[in-house]
Amino acid sequence: MSSPSIRRRSRSTTAARGWAVYQDARDAHPEWIAVDERGEPRRHWANPELWVTCGLGPYNFEQMTAIVREIAGLYDVQGIFANRWAGSGPCYCESCRNGFKAASGLALPGPRAGDPARRPYLLWRRQRLLELWDVWDAAIRDRRPGARFIPNGPPGLESARRAEFLAVDQQARRGLTPPWAFGRSAKQYRAVMGRKPVAGLFSIGVEEPYRWKDSVQAGPEVRIWALDGIANGFRPWFTKFSAVLYDRRWLKTVEDLYAWHHRHERYLRNEAPLARVGLVYSEQTRDFYGKDEAEAKVDDHLKGMYQALVESRVPFEMVHDALLDPEHVDQFKLLVLANVAALSEGQCRRLADYVDRGGSVLATFETSLYDETGAARADLGLRALFQVSYEGRVDRRMQNSYLALNHETRHPILAGIEDAPRVINTVQRVRVRPLAPFPSPVTLIPSYPDLPMEHVFPRVPPTDERQVYLRERGPSRVVYFPGDLDRTFWEVLAADHGKLLANAVDWATNEERPVAVTGPGFLDVTAWRQKESLTVHLVNLTNPMTMKGPFREFVPVGPFTVRIRLPESLRARRVQLLVAGTAPPAEEAAGALTVTVPSVTDHEVVAVDVS
Ligand SMILES: [Zn+2]
């Protein structure tokens, strides 16, 4: 290998330097180097000996292509996996400037979120990376027909559909990451990959901005992260930076995980989820509506809804908004749209068709108020489905406002909060007016002064303005919350909001849950069908360190009653608890199996052999 980029000395040079080069390589090939907005070549942020390369130009398309071809020719590899293959942020090199100009007629966008070139740039970048994926894949297969290129982090999740196998690199939690975040990634990738294998890449180390990449963290944190990924369909793949073992505490943790996984592999094939609820996620909403505020405007809605679904223990999957066709959504009874603001006409039509076929929809806030490019609509794209019309105004901050709960309606959405005449409102709301008659279980108590104390009283009588619109159409149900109930739930975590969301999901689903779990604690519940078995995973997230890791120890919870609806024509032959290693008491009646799980330390899997 004569490449100046990889002839250096240290043992890690070849493996990790695909996206950065030394000075000699820069001297020989200045066109390989990424350029910042001021036109300056980019030095590596963590290692000043190195220069960052452009992900979309000749370095990747020519030099790295030659390297992967050489590797595939010299070594008996099954594939080449690359992280950081897609470049490191925006690049303003000549190749990028010319390439984008040729494709779009535009100059590269600046840092401003509203730059009109931004959307074309994101789409061009994605297209360029798909081309690169194809070029590397072809180069590898040219030398080794059975091998493939495996990207880490594909350019757009929908493009993951083209992969035969993917590894999702989300090594550990940091900051306020919830413990279900790894499982959520598994759901997102499976939404596009289907049954193709997806490995969840977890680390044994501390994952914080200070990059302690040679560290070891507490066993319970490593375990809970990996177990929630496994419960949601990941195959485990652990990573340890550097090959020197300073701290050996992690070895037993990883050994135990893999030994258990291997022992019970036939119950972990996860051929099909039993979930009947699909939570829709939308990259176009994040990119073109959320833009630089995607965390607050998009992700926080999704996280709030995700948290509510986990708390309610209803098994659910995720659905990519580009895949709303019958093949991908008809397995579900309910689709949940947590502020999926940017939807095309076609996507709105597919959602309406889904409801026509008997499906239900639950949506919040600005869902469908923007088109797929992020341009505002005059009215909701789903106006006919919701039977409400946009009044042209969104309240962005409602202070000291409440929701009146009108129990005389006896609506199931109020179950479990019958003792409350009112609860706190959301923070934001879309002003809408109804186009049809609706029940009124939840109505608005408008904002009133929160100081001084003696002025804290409502200024107007309770209004009849509904804060949830509930429709029934045969077996289908449509729920629209004009408020940001999901996002407010994520910010405030009010139990009342969690109940409203869970009740709305159950009412809209309008059928018995496939799995119902009763007992104390915070569990992530997933349910699967294998060729000859059903499995229900209970991952115990109950911990003082749940919302701010790391876990130090597990807090056992239980007992639980697990009721599993048996798919028609299936009979239970044998029930086991794959972690406790016992055969628990079980009762079969009326098409359902009821199992008692005495206690869950970190996780349990109820495995039911069926015939
Ligand atoms: Zn470039």
Could you write a compact summary of the structure shown?
The protein has about 600 residues and is α/β, with parallel strands linked by helices. Helices cover about 30% and strands about 20% of the residues.
What report would you give on this structure?
By secondary structure, this protein is of the alpha/beta class. Helices cover 28% and strands 22% of the residues. A 6-stranded mixed β-sheet has the order 10-9-11-12-19-18, sandwiched between helices. Strand 25 and strand 26 form a beta hairpin. The longest helix is centred in the N-terminal third of the chain and has 26 residues, at 118-143. It binds zinc ion.
What characteristics describe this protein?
globular; disordered N terminus; single chain; alpha/beta; 611 residues; binds zinc ion
Outline the fold blueprint.
Blueprint: H1 13-16, E1 20-21, H2 23-28, E2 51-52, H3 58-74, E3 79-82, H4 94-104, H5 118-143, E4 148-151, E5 166-169, H6 181-193, E6 198-203, H7 219-231, E7 235-239, H8 250-263, E8 272-273, E9 277-281, H9 283-290, H10 294-312, E10 316-320, H11 326-329, E11 334-337, H12 345-356, E12 360-364, H13 383-386, E13 388-395, E14 402-405, E15 422-424, E16 429-434, E17 442-445, E18 469-473, E19 476-481, H14 485-492, H15 495-509, E20 515-518, E21 523-529, E22 533-540, E23 560-565, E24 572-577, E25 586-589, E26 592-597, E27 603-610
The protein binds zinc ion (ZN).
